[in-house]
Specification:
single chain, alpha/beta, Transcription Regulator spoIIAA, 2 domains, 8-stranded mixed β-sheet, 3-stranded antiparallel β-sheet, 41% helix, globular
Length: 397
């Protein structure tokens, strides 16, 4: 096991001592400012947690209130002071979550947000910066459904985060709007326009790079050190080829043998699913046969050249995850596993991005990879990836 994370709404709940503090693994807990005290932090440290993902989102009290967050600017500073008190200035290891594109956020306020983050003592080893996505059926979709950014800006807006939302750390519950009055809804802060959101993304990339952070994934920044950078091991697992992870809880995502599996999102469905799995396991045990969960995917079939046979979903998953990273997609691996025809289709699909200079085909120093240029390539990642998928789709036909 390389990494473990306790997150979502349960981040600050009571946790028993369940990890070996001497184990060489990253053990993260997600928490919001103002939801813990020194005693709680000491208990987490004793339980083996060695990294905290802090859901700050904004340092502006007006914005925090507008999005239904219960913590305030003062809580953020006090929380970091307590973390330093328990773990020590050199021992505290935390990541900061920030959101661009929030209601009421302007380019000037965003610059102030990043400057405030860099003045924190101790500084965060890692930052996760997400762009607010207003999607139909969500809380913010109800709040801002009539205030949509125009289509010319929507692509840039979506590209910053929208490929595989919900996979990384930093995803926390959104506020409940059921108690909002008509007057409160009318007084909500406006969303920034798409061009401002694009500026926020590009500015963050340049500013944090100047402060010694590595932009190693579309939404992730790690502080550079002499022996490398403080990348999140947990996030790294999501983007590696053939990596596997197991998650529990409502809607939790798992990846096994190159396939993703989502647990039921509704509590009633989840309970029913768990009971069915238990009954299936007991039946197999009684019959003396080995139990294979019905959600476990079959082993990928390969031909005599070790090429995967009819597994385009797996290739699509790898393309989406690897092109989120600064290293990009290993084209030699694609050729070896899927064949040269798919490799050529990928490059053809990325042709416009390559011509515009927002994608790059690296074929030097033993590398043969396709990567997106920071920040413009990341900003328009959805367009490039969609074009690649179109080429692969035509190949399949």
């Amino acid at each position: 096991i390389l990494s473990s994370i306790l997150g979502g709404d349960n981040g600050s709940s009571d946790t028993a001592s369940c990890f070996d503090p001497m184990a060489n693994m990253e053990i993260t807990i997600e928490m919001d400012p103002g939801t813990f005290d020194v005693k709680k932090l000491q208990g987490l440290k004793d339980a083996g947690f060695n990294r905290i993902s802090l859901g700050v989102q904004s340092f502006d009290d007006t914005i925090l209130e507008s999005i239904g967050r219960v913590h305030r600017r003062r809580d953020i500073f006090e929380s970091i002071q307590m973390m330093e008190q328990v773990f020590g200035r050199d021992g505290v290891n935390y990541s900061l979550d920030l959101i661009s594109g929030l209601p009421g956020l302007t380019p000037t306020k965003w610059i102030e947000t990043l400057e405030t983050a860099m003045k924190l003592v101790p500084q965060p080893n890692h930052l996760s910066i997400y762009d607010l996505q207003v999607e139909q059926g969500t809380v913010f979709g109800k709040w801002y459904g009539k205030q949509q950014r125009n289509n010319d800006d929507a692509e840039a807006e979506a590209a910053k985060e929208g490929i595989l939302s919900g996979a990384q750390e930093g995803t926390r519950a959104t506020p409940d709007v059921s108690s909002q009055t008509d007057k409160e809804q009318h007084q909500r802060l406006p969303l920034p326009p798409g061009e401002d959101c694009a500026f926020m993304y590009k500015y963050a990339a340049g500013y944090l790079r100047s402060k010694g952070y590595e932009h190693y994934e579309i939404s992730s920044y790690a502080r550079r050190e002499e022996l490398g950078s403080r990348r999140s091991q947990h996030n790294q697992i999501y983007w590696e080829i053939d990596s596997e992870w197991y998650s529990v809880g409502l809607g939790a995502t798992n990846r096994v043998k190159g396939h993703r599996f989502y647990r039921p999102r509704a509590m009633s469905d989840y309970i029913k699913w768990v009971r069915e799995q238990k009954e299936s396991m007991l039946t197999a045990k009684e019959s003396g046969t080995s139990w294979v969960p019905d959600w476990l995917p079959p082993v990928r079939v390969t031909d005599k050249n070790d090429h995967v046979v009819v597994d385009d979903d797996y290739l699509a998953d790898v393309i989406m995850t690897r092109l989120r990273t600064c290293e990009g997609l290993d084209l030699d691996w694609v050729s070896k596993v899927f064949g040269e025809d798919r490799n050529k289709a990928i490059l053809h699909g990325a042709e416009l991005g390559l011509e515009l200079g927002i994608a790059k085909h690296d074929i030097s120093n033993g590398r043969n990879s396709l990567r997106l240029v920071d920040p413009d390539g990341f900003l328009f990642s959805n367009s490039i990836i969609s074009s690649i998928f179109l080429e692969l789709g035509e190949l399949g036909e």
